[in-house]
Design brief:
Length: about 350
């Protein structure tokens, strides 16, 4: 992979930043965000991670030494239970509104700026590479407008071995949604690599570094190849408030897993300024399009019948967390068919 192009030289040149976004599909800044603020946030997050048993007892939480026996990922009920403890942190939500971030996003997207209410943290265990976030475009998950931008930042240093983000420069120029298929990893959808051309770009990220790209740019997480380090990152979205937003982006992340409400999130906050801030805006809210998710589920069913271990594992997780749902029942019935009985990959 090649090195990400750094755009600190064009920090105050909005025209040049837009040109680079149009040409390459991303911009990358060294230390756009205050490393000290990020480390304070890391302290808050890792304290919770230690409390829920995801870090090794007796180690400094800031080091992020993962307890391998606690491995879980998005789609597992135990992941949601731990993640939603972090989701209640006021400092976590406030980080998406830090002035250095919102001022840059306003420079790129104009006013009124809408930071998506659905803030996202990514927490990735080592020695769990089969669950690495696959190659995809964000639009299939977040929808609304093509001009929705992801702002990704590691919470602490993130060398390549820890599994930062990689982008495919110029991949947004297709100006369309590529074909996605079932995959393990966050989102459960991936683009076939045979449909892609070009050289990937990434870097050894440091605390404060920030990668920004629109929803059609093809990207992926790199596998966490460390022996024992948990990767922690912020993965937030921004758009101009005059553009449509999909209804599910107004809900807490992964709330479908356990019905987490905003009142639950806000229960222990010291301030109210950022609570329900988007309700003060006149937003065009559009329904969620389930086409891609439904297609991925249908493919997982078909692959399970063919003996595909990844698909079988995906369906087992679905049955475990939501056995009474329509999809949970269909998954259980498919797993019970002849040929769908291989050992779980975990």
């Amino acid at each position: 992979m090649k090195e990400l192009r750094t755009s600190n030289d064009a920090f105050d040149d909005a025209e040049e930043l837009h040109r680079r976004l149009d040409e390459e599909g991303y911009i990358f800044f060294r230390r756009l965000q205050d490393p000290d603020q990020l480390m304070a946030l890391r302290r808050d997050i890792t304290r919770v991670l230690m409390e829920v048993g995801w870090l090794e007892k007796g180690t400094d939480p800031l080091d992020g030494i993962a307890r391998i026996g606690a491995q879980c990922t998005e789609g597992d009920r135990e992941y949601t239970d731990g993640y939603h403890r972090i989701y209640r942190l006021e400092s976590f939500h406030r980080s998406a509104h830090w002035p250095e971030v919102t001022e840059m996003m306003e420079k790129l997207l104009g006013r009124p700026l809408l930071p998506h209410p659905q803030k996202i943290a990514r927490l990735w265990f080592p020695q769990y590479t089969q669950h690495t976030t696959p190659i995809h475009q964000d639009f299939v998950h977040f929808q609304g407008s093509y001009q929705t931008y992801t702002c990704w930042a590691p919470v602490g240093d993130c060398p390549i071995a820890l599994g930062g983000l990689a982008v495919l420069p110029g991949s947004h120029k297709i100006d369309a949604i590529r074909e996605h298929r079932f995959s393990l990893g966050a989102g459960s959808l991936a683009i076939d690599t045979r449909d892609l051309d070009g050289e990937w770009a990434t870097t050894d990220y440091q605390a404060g570094d920030t990668l920004i790209f629109p929803s059609l740019t093809v990207h992926q997480a790199l596998p966490n190849l460390t022996e024992d380090r948990l990767r922690i990152s912020l993965d937030n979205r921004y758009q101009n408030g005059r553009l449509p937003i999909a209804e599910h982006m107004l809900e807490p992340h992964l709330q479908i897993m356990n019905s987490l409400s905003w009142d639950d999130v806000y229960a222990d906050w010291a301030e109210t300024k950022l609570q329900y801030y988007w309700k003060k805006m006149d937003l065009e809210v559009v329904p969620r399009n389930m086409t891609w998710a439904d297609k991925g589920f249908a493919e997982a069913l078909a692959l399970t019948r063919q003996g595909n271990e990844a698909a079988q594992h995906h369906l087992r997780r679905l049955v475990k967390r939501d056995p009474d749902s329509e999809q949970g029942k269909e998954a259980a019935a498919t797993l019970a068919e002849p040929g769908a009985c291989s050992a779980d990959m975990d």
